[in-house]
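Step 1: inspect the first sequence and its tokens.
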Amino acid sequence: MKTRRGWRAGNKKTRSTRGAPVVRALAAVAGALRGRGAWVAGGGAAVVVLGLVGAWLFAGEERAAPPDPRARQYQDFDACMLTGDKGITRGTLAASAWEGMQQASRDTLARVTYVPVTGPQSAGNVQPFLNSLIQRQCDVVVAVGTPQVQVTRAAAGKNTAVRFVLVDDASAVKAETAGNVTVAKPDESLKETVAQAIRQAVRASNA
């Protein structure tokens, strides 16, 4: 089986061999158009031949492009996480939640991203960041951090088409009444709770 490098080498050789007709065609045009009069008279022919040469080269390049086996075909589904200013630093709750999101992405091919709230960690400063995720039409929003959870919980009732995951123990009582909210407790089950919430949301969107 050819390696990618070997394939490229073979492809260069093929293109070099296939290039011979082009060289001959250009030489023929140059010979036919020697002299000013011939150039004027043959201008149309030159354009036609050069156009054909360009099309031939373009078609050759199209056929030569190898598929990228590493490319992932993601679903049109976005799960977004709102974190504190530390982002997904190792050892934080956001890091555990992010692992769950990545697992869900591998299982469902959903796109996953996270946005750290920079500046003051207050409800007033968090609000614009959450609004941006809603405007981006994130299908699932995961909130980690006290002000993040506070603002997201308040927005859940106004955005019923979005699934929200709140990483917070204190939200459990109020969140129980919201059908589009999942509470992920900050313990060893956090990663799986987040992953499962995204899997369920993806399945529901495909139903």
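Step 2: inspect the second sequence and its tokens, then contrast the two.
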Amino acid sequence: MPKSRIRKKAEFTPPPAKQATAIKLTNRSWVAPVMLALFAIGLAWIVVFYVTDGSLPLESLRNWNIVVGFGFIAGGFAVSTQWK
């Protein structure tokens, strides 16, 4: 029976080095203050609602005031995605 041929392995060649890409930095100094302001407004809205037994900030919304407060907080989280 004939012997099988032994294949030679190719030499390892490392992949070419990636060149650094220039990162375009934009001025996003507005993000942090807006984010913190939305968090604070949302928290204050909910706290005022509970402290005043629902008569403030908007009595006509009743328990929907909580949703408005959490909406401001969610807006703060949405703005935080722009922070770099």
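Step 3: confirm your contrast with the notes below.
The mean pLDDT is 88. Residues 31-51 form the longest helix (21 residues).
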